[in-house]
Amino acid sequence: MWTYLQPVLGEIILAITASQFMLLTGISKSEKRPDLIRLFAVIGLLLFAFSGFFTDRNITETFGGAFVNDDFARYVKLIIGLASAAAIVLSRNYLKREKLDQYEFSVLLVYAVLGMGIMVSANDLLTLYIGVEMQALALYVMAAFNRDSLRASEAGLKYFVLGALSSGILLYGASLIYGYAGTLRFDGIALALQGDYGPGLVGGMIFLLCGLAFKISAAPFHMWTPDVYEGAPTPVTGFFAGAPKFAAIALIARVLYEPFGDLAEGWTLALMVFAGLSMLVGALGGLMQTNIKRLMAYSSIANMGYALVPLTAGTLAGLTGMLTFMTIYIVTIIGVFACILQMRLRSGIVEQISDLSGLAETNKGLAVTLTLMMVSLIGIPPMAGFWGKWFAFGPAIGAGHYFIVVLALVSSVVGAFYYLRIIRLMWFAESKEPFIVGAGAERSLSVMSAILLIVLVVVPFITHPSLSLIRNAATSIAG
Q1: Residues 320 and 450 placed together within one structural domain of the fold
Q2: What is the pLDDT of residue 57?
Q3: How many domains does the chain fold into?
Q4: pTM check: above 0.90
Q5: Of 135, 153, 157, 136, the residue nearest 145 (C-alpha)
Q6: Is 188 inside any structural domain?
Q7: Which of 49, 196, 394, 401 is deepest in the core (most CB within 10 A)?
Q8: 90 pLDDT tier (thresholds 50, 70, 90)
Q9: Residue 51 contacts by C-beta under 8 Å, 6 or more apart in sequence?
Q10: Which structural domain, as residue segments, surrounds residue 145?
Q11: Using CA atoms, how far apart are residues 54 and 57, in angstroms rounded to an integer?
């Protein structure tokens, strides 16, 4: 039995953790209940993150091959687990301050991560769909977590309606693939592609890819992102920008490299369209934004375009480049939101970009941290963001996709304008309203910001050990 359950150990830990939360809520009625459940959630997420490294790596499949926990899944789950644990820690002060500190937040986040774990380990179409929907249902509720806010309710409703549409597209694609391949298993689909397959199999792949593109907010399936990011509570927005995006793009990589590896010439063209549109929409759309969360939404769209660029190569180097870029991006985006959550004006939380004016006068340390995070997002050396783009664009150049790389570089230059605008406001504009200097309650945010900043500076100097782990992950599905 233990051998059979080893590959799914991390998911079992999360399922038990989330189930026990419901039991604890019936036993404990104290005001400390949210903190208690938050602590257990962080512990469960950390165990989930590292569980794959403490089991037999030779045993990778279970449930009849529908679930696989190879080196690729282990690495992605490590990053997802750590990013989600950080999201819970960062959310505490905000939720208490805004009187939203309910235990359901931790429960929903754990269930969302459980869905992500199933997504990245999916080895057939049914498991894929179960993982995507489990994640999505939890995220819909998290977007509307502030029930007293009209914007939050609107965000949750828009996310749900458009998410249902994308789910239908994904399911239709899966049904076409099953109808023409005669199997749900990824290896069976790959085998069917070696024979005389019909056009429905290619059409099913395109529908499936479109449904998954919605999950990473790749253009032209990005329309939900700015409204949801703006309306959702700020910690939820920070969570949305990290772990769910990594899980979805990892699933895209697995689907394309494993069952549809023989159709690389077809899906690389589709990825170039998604990447090009995403980079243009993200770069140009961000120029007109005045709300910091909407700006980060367009930044996220552009960065998902950059993450798709290496996958267009259809090679092992391309998959390695995507994993490297996404890892650095998640560290950076968590740092950005850690900084945003520390800033408060006397009139309330910081939401407008103009609210950042004069931050250096009140809190120079925070201004320096946020400046370096923005420099990393731009991709200026020696920050890790530069190396993320280096590894992302290199494989596409090697594959001869010069146009998409030039477009990526142009988009990076255009996008740099709105990052530099934030830096200019923090250092050279006069403060319109004084900032409230963080007290002891904000210490955890400050510590996390400092840790993430150190990681972004140090990562370039420890590239080889970190890259070996990423290369092993990429080799497990593209070797």
Answers
A1: yes
A2: 76
A3: 2
A4: yes
A5: 153
A6: no
A7: 401
A8: confident
A9: 9, 10, 13, 77
A10: 1-150+224-257
A11: 8
